[in-house]
């Protein structure tokens, strides 16, 4: 299983890098949309949508919402950065509410688990994830910036996995995700500190270490939040993985759950903190 997981991860990283540096920002934004729709299909599974008609209807609604966002942002013209920031702010606030739901689980399930509410959450969060990707990739040096955002989330995941397996004793959220530990959480933070120190050594003078900390640490925390939220939904739904399309990893949603929470905050903070 571990070998299969590593092979799949390497293939995903190579594919991502190839697309990032060989497509222009518009085409990259467009090609990401089907991946978001696939995640939406798996969200439908977690909602308990059983018939293909209901799932296709849900995907059609998600596609319509993404298309509306693309037109509202003027994706094919001059990107409306202000609207994108507002949407990312809304998502970041919504994730703060999700944090309270995670703390209150299982009692909080009455607030988020009804199918219409969970469905709207999926539409909103997945659409704004796509918006965040479009915002980031359209920035100067967008491919490198988006790769940096992915690295922050990946390091939080890797640090949590390695430190949790080696030292994990104290459960982070036992009712939501029994496998996650505080030791794993701090392992992820340690890797973020190493990343910040590495980046600070060759960043332009305008980008200070304080700015990197203000960007990386909150985004890392939000990535953990996204992971916990999907774990909570899966636990409530009684499923292990959101899908089985990625060998060794489960579904697309299982791989991007941290990104769904982290990317809107990354886009928002970068645009607020950027000195350029």
From TrEMBL:
Q: Which reaction does it catalyse?
A: a 1,2-diacyl-sn-glycero-3-phosphate + CTP + H(+) = a CDP-1,2-diacyl-sn-glycerol + diphosphate
**Cellular location(s):** Cell membrane
> GO molecular function: any one?
phosphatidate cytidylyltransferase activity
Q: Which UniProt keywords apply?
A: Cell membrane, Lipid biosynthesis, Lipid metabolism, Membrane, Nucleotidyltransferase, Phospholipid biosynthesis, Phospholipid metabolism, Transferase, Transmembrane, Transmembrane helix
Report the transmembrane regions from the record: 55-75, 87-105, 117-137, 144-164, 184-203, 210-229, 256-273
- Classification via Pfam families: CTP_transf_1
**What membrane topology does this protein have?**
Multi-pass membrane protein
Enzyme Commission number, as recorded: 2.7.7.41
Pathway listed? Phospholipid metabolism; CDP-diacylglycerol biosynthesis; CDP-diacylglycerol from sn-glycerol 3-phosphate: step 3/3; Lipid metabolism
Question: Which top EC class is given?
Answer: transferase
Name the InterPro entries on file.
Answer: PC_trans (IPR000374)
- UniProt similarity note: Belongs to the CDS family.
**This chain belongs to which protein, by name?**
Phosphatidate cytidylyltransferase
What is the organism field in this record?
SAR92 clade bacterium H455
């Amino acid at each position: 299983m571990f070998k299969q997981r590593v092979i799949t991860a390497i293939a995903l990283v190579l594919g991502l890098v190839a697309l990032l540096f060989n497509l222009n920002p518009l085409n990259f934004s467009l090609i990401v949309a089907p991946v978001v729709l696939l995640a939406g299909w798996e969200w439908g599974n977690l909602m308990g949508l059983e018939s293909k008609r209901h799932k296709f209807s849900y995907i059609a609604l998600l596609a319509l919402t993404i298309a509306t966002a693309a037109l509202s942002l003027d994706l094919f013209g001059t990107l409306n950065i202000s609207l994108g920031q507002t949407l990312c702010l809304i998502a970041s606030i919504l994730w703060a509410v999700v944090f309270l739901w995670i703390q209150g689980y299982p009692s909080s399930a009455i607030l988020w688990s009804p199918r219409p509410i969970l469905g709207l959450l999926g539409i909103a969060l997945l659409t704004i994830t796509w918006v965040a990707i479009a915002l980031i990739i359209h920035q100067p040096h967008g491919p490198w910036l988006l790769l940096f955002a992915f690295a922050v989330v990946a390091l939080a995941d890797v640090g949590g996995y390695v430190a949790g397996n080696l030292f994990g004793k104290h459960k982070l959220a036992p009712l939501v995700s029994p496998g996650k530990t505080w030791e794993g959480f701090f392992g992820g933070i340690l890797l973020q500190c190493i990343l910040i120190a590495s980046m600070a050594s060759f960043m332009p003078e305008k980008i200070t270490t304080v700015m990197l900390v203000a960007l990386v640490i909150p985004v890392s925390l939000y990535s953990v939040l996204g992971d916990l939220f999907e774990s909570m939904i899966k636990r409530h739904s009684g499923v292990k993985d959101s899908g089985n399309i990625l060998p060794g990893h489960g579904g697309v949603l299982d791989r991007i759950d941290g990104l769904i929470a982290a990317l809107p905050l990354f886009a928002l903070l970068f645009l607020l903190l950027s000195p350029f």
